[in-house]
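Internal tracking record. Fields below are filled automatically when a chain is submitted to the structure queue. Please do not edit lines marked as system-generated. If the sequence contains nonstandard residues, flag them in the REMARKS field before resubmitting.
Queue: standard
Priority: normal
Entity type: single polypeptide chain
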Amino acid sequence: MAMLLALVPIVILALWYAQQTAYQQQKISEIYTKNQSLILSFNGLKSDISALEKAHLNNQLLNNAQLQKSIENKWQTTKKRINFLKNSYPTEQLVAKWQQLQLLTPGEQVSEIDYEQLQRQLQSIEQPFQNVLKAKLEFQAQRLTQLNQYFLFGLFVLIPLLVVISLLVIRRVTRQLNALEEVIWQLGEGCFDTPIKLNGSEEFAALGTELDWLREELQRSHKQKETFLRHVSHELKTPLASLTEGNSLLQSGSFGAISPPQQRIINIMDDALSRLAILIDDLLNYSAASHPLAQQQHSLNHIKDELIKHFSAQIDESNITVQWPTQRTSVQLPYLPVKLILTQLIGNALQYAKSSIEVEYRVVRNDIHISVKDDGPGIDLSEQHKLTQPFYRGKHSENHSGSGLGLAIVAECVKQLKGTLRWQHTHQGCHICIQFQSYGGAKNA
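SYSTEM-GENERATED OUTPUT FOLLOWS
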């Protein structure tokens, strides 16, 4: 509506200008045609007077009654032409000269004409007559120029007004789009606690109401999912422990000798129980990462020692070299989220790496940067936006065990730390970087 209100005056101005321009051009054309007719009449008047003067001189010699009658008729036509020229542009200077010219024309006595004086008077009229015709054209040209100036002035006023209104409309639309983008980002990040309210037009506010309803539904669904995962994981722990214990007793031979087919079945059960235990641990970690984690603080060296102990057997079996940070640091890190992040990233790297894994740590002002880099097959660019979704597994994971929750747990922990998770694009392998802020004055020792 604002754009329409701003455009209407410009459209009206353009239509008015087009109409007035056409009208003025028509007037100029009419004046030009009339001037040409008047010039022809004036030239004809001069010719008539010259012809009458010659005819009069001839008649003085011939004294012909018929020629005299013709001269008198010609004078009547000439006087009408003088009246026509006099009434065409009745300006003061011309009217006076035409009246003087009329005084020199005879009434009934054509023989009383003083041709020399009549010629001089006609010559004195010619230049003012030409000036009047020229002034008429110049006046219309000035009107057209003035019309152009009015039009340009109108554009000079209305176009900035249109620009200002356009900028205001764009600013309002952009502000609403930014608000909508922020709300969508909020929902995409799983921030369901903040109510959604969009201010603006009626339709935009209605969209905010619908999005808030969606937020409530997502929040309820998210809570139900977490409750389900937590309860199912805990409920599976007890029967899983019993199954593991029973399988261990069977393997020990306490119930007699085990035949090769039985041993094969026991091995299959043992592998399945191990995968199930990993899946339950991942579900518990994912459920824990989705809630505010205990902010117990430990140094990176303490966390590193625990991770080395945790992965020692897996590292020895895989013959993969793991390079840990060597610098000593006094900074205290949130223990549980950082440990969960590194556990998942190093666990994934051990599955995909060919020969080496490098864990890096550095501090830039108050920002903590932790990265894990391996020389495995890397991450497909088309899959990056899906890898942090729960249970999603990339195309390189077909021949590897896992629950598909590793990077989802990492993403949830990074969210708890209010940090960022990103992939570094390298020619070979995978390079995942975590960045978050330390409020304890991070410094390298």
